[in-house]
Design a protein that fits this description.
This protein has one domain. About 45% of the residues lie in helices and about 10% in strands. A hairpin with a 5-residue loop joins strand 3 and strand 4.
């Protein structure tokens, strides 16, 4: 889960009135007219966005365009971009395979449908923090790929209300080095059973159930370095 780094003059400033009107009209349409049998999950996500904007963001954000669509990076579960595919500002994309159960970290079948939606809703909450960075605070944590002190601070603020343990920045360092990375917040700090068995942790990683290790070598090394002292491990293997 990450931000899209497309430059935008909207970062840290309110969106134009025409964007606000369009985005709010789309939300009204979804909440009022979307076919529940076909796109009921989108309606629930917009409802969650509206409720969380009030509970966690002081209603300072304008609803984005929310899509069940592939993020820009094949390893991401979702992303938040300052410019939408329609040309107006702000969109959130969430990987649809998380909802259908075809993603390798999700269990398929009707029995796990609610758990899959709960996980997808957590992806939305993560991306809302990125939206907050883009449209309200202007602190995008660019040196941390979006998951630096600003993201960590907002995530821990929300997490404290939800009763979740704290997380650190994406860089493992200092007194917080032993904490989970905010790159995988909130699902990395959710309790066992929160997703009703729908989420499948990476094999052999019971202590860090939120880590998803990419298949390519460079991507795997990048993720593993966030959670483990790779240099110390290599020294032990060479001993």
């Amino acid at each position: 889960m990450d931000t899209i780094t497309t430059p935008s003059p909207l970062v840290g400033t309110p969106p134009p009135d025409r964007d606000v009107q369009l985005r709010e009209r789309i939300m009204e349409y979804v909440l009022r007219d979307t076919d529940p049998g076909r796109q009921g999950s989108i309606k629930r996500l917009y409802t969650s966005w509206r409720d969380w904007n009030k509970e966690h963001f002081e209603q300072l954000m304008v609803v984005p365009l929310i899509f069940l669509n592939e993020p820009s990076n094949p390893r991401r579960l979702g992303d938040c971009g300052p410019v939408s595919g329609f040309g107006c500002s702000s969109q959130i994309r969430i990987r649809p395979s998380l909802l259908t159960g075809t993603h390798p970290r999700m269990r398929a079948g009707a029995a796990y449908a609610e758990g899959r939606f709960t996980f997808v809703a957590d992806v939305l909450l993560h991306e809302m923090v990125h939206q907050w960075q883009q449209e309200v605070s202007g602190q995008r944590d660019e040196g941390y790929h979006g998951h630096g002190p600003a993201f960590r601070g907002k995530a821990n603020e929300i997490g404290a209300r939800l009763g979740l343990p704290p997380v650190r920045t994406s860089k493992r360092r200092g007194k917080d080095a032993g904490l989970p990375s905010c790159s995988y917040w909130p699902y990395i700090v959710r309790g066992a059973g929160f997703y009703h068995g729908a989420y499948v942790p990476a094999s052999g990683d019971a202590k860090k159930p939120g880590i998803i290790v990419p298949a390519d070598l460079d991507g795997a090394c990048s993720v593993l370095r966030e959670h483990f002292d790779i240099d110390a491990l290599c020294k032990r293997l060479q001993a």
